[in-house]
Known about the structure:
The complex is a heterodimer of chains A (283) and B (316).
Chain A: H1 2-28, H2 36-53, H3 58-84, H4 88-110, E1 124-127, E2 130-133, H5 134-156, H6 158-168, H7 170-175, H8 180-205, H9 214-227, H10 232-253, H11 260-272
Antiparallel strand pairs in A: 1-2
Chain B: H1 5-20, H2 27-53, H3 60-78, H4 82-104, H5 110-129, H6 132-135, E1 141-142, H7 151-174, H8 176-186, H9 188-193, H10 198-224, E2 226-227, H11 229-232, H12 235-248, H13 254-270, H14 279-293, H15 298-315
Antiparallel strand pairs in B: 1-2
Amino acid sequence: MLQVLIQGLLLSGLYALIAVGFTLIFSVGRVLNLAYGAYLLIGGYTYFYFSQQLGLPKFAGVALAGIIGCALGILKFQLIVRPLKGNHVAIEISTLILAVFLQSVVIFVFGDSSKILLPIIPGVERVAGAAIPFSNLFAAIASWVILISLWLFVRSTHMGRAMQAVSMDAKGAAISGVDATKINMFTWALSGTLGAIAGVFFASYTQLYPGMWVAPLIIAVAVVIVGGIGSIIGTLIVAHIVGFLEILTSAYIAPELRGVFTMLLIIVILVWRPSGLFGREEL
Amino acid sequence: MGLRWHHFALWGLFAVTLFVLPEFVSRGTLRTLIFANFLAIFAISWDTLSGRTGYISFGHPFLIGIGAYTTAILTKRFDVAMEISIPIAVIATMVGGLIVLLPALRIKGSYFALVTLAMMELIYQLVQVIRPDLTGGTRGMSGLPTLTRGAVNGYYMSVSLMLAIALTTWLVMRTRLGTALSAIGMNEEAVSGSGLSVTKLKMAAFLFSAFIAGLGGAVYIHYLGSIAPRALFDINFVFTIIVAALIGGAGTTVGPIAGAFFLTFLLEYLRPYLPGAERYMVYSGLALILYMAQPKGMWELFFQGIAKFDRLGRRE
């Protein structure tokens, strides 16, 4: 029982970290960024290249992953999202194409085979029969810290409130003197940074391989859909629902079925309550 | 329907070109052409659902997979003849089409796209776990009965199927039904405001798309003789279908065919230079540039080119 609780908390923390960058873009830009998973891919490989192949310090590797993710987010906004001017279907399709492109660039540079990422913080602690790798513990704590500071940032700083304003009503925000383009670019940069850092943790939790962007994308989608647009706290809660659902399924029903209930959850929530459990009413 | 003699002349010319092709090209090229034909079928199916009505499906393999798995299980596990199992597979896929339709009655845009993606992932995980004795689990099934032997026969089969589906789709889309479906893609409220039943129209589009997907999927695995969940319910497969339809030109019948042939041959000609999956780098890069330049596809570029040429000619 305690083992399930611990594993559930660790996995949910990771999922919250993965989902939060996706939530940001979905609520501020109202855009489904299907290349979000590619940030995690690029982040994981950047960390692998700098700290395992070049031997830089691990935290420098994480920081570089964040910087590259940030640059990628800005590039994506400037080159793809802005020229398509709010054509949502076109943005979804071009980000999907971009994700496949980035995946094949990774294959071209690093090869097709999967790589093992050394944990960021080595060491394992055993509590009540559950192994807690320090790396996962660190990821869970980091994700809590990041989420809470993000929540404070969005609520209390000028920039954060401007982001909220754009996400509620872009026109109204423009009338109040908020530069929506600037806010959007900032959000894309932030989302890229968060995604790339989440990628380092996700890759050390599972493994590093070119197809690793699909699973986190689907988790992020599930969390955002079930949580609803524009709710950071909703993201946190639903990440725990999804994480515990997976751990409970694999502990008590069958490990192979762990993803099935997540998918059913997405489908049921989208059809039954499209605005999500904690989101604003719209559509 | 506004049919003109040159429509039939062009279709006839296209069919004759495809049918005499085996006399001139090698076996290897024929095998590539077979894949292009099947990709064209899937792209037409995707386009009927998404290109026309604007309900973007990211889970089209969900439908293709239902057709493919139904006939595979029937022939392999229950020794049903292919003549019976393929029609059953098509009917099963149409039932699947109704399942995809359910969310489309309530949600649209990005939300609908996400539900279809979730449906594909769901069936991918279920197929491996529920009754692996029937589905073959993670490894899938091999040694399925095949419809044809040899590249030339396979080519004729795939090309006939593709042409039949393309011609049917083209004719259907020229009727009032086709016009109404495109109208849904432009403005759904206006269609329902004109007194048409949007639900019935969407049902027609989804059933028609599922019919093509089921037929294509069933015949495809009886060409391959094997089925594997990872190759079928794959986001890269979705990507290939969508890109083929979009690059060629969504909302047209010739577009998806042109896109499928273009992309299959592009991948094939890149093989000597980039043997592995890094070929997708050129492929997706090119697709991204083409799509950003003209979201309506190559077909539109072609027409724009003709119009420009026309204007130049008149000026002189």
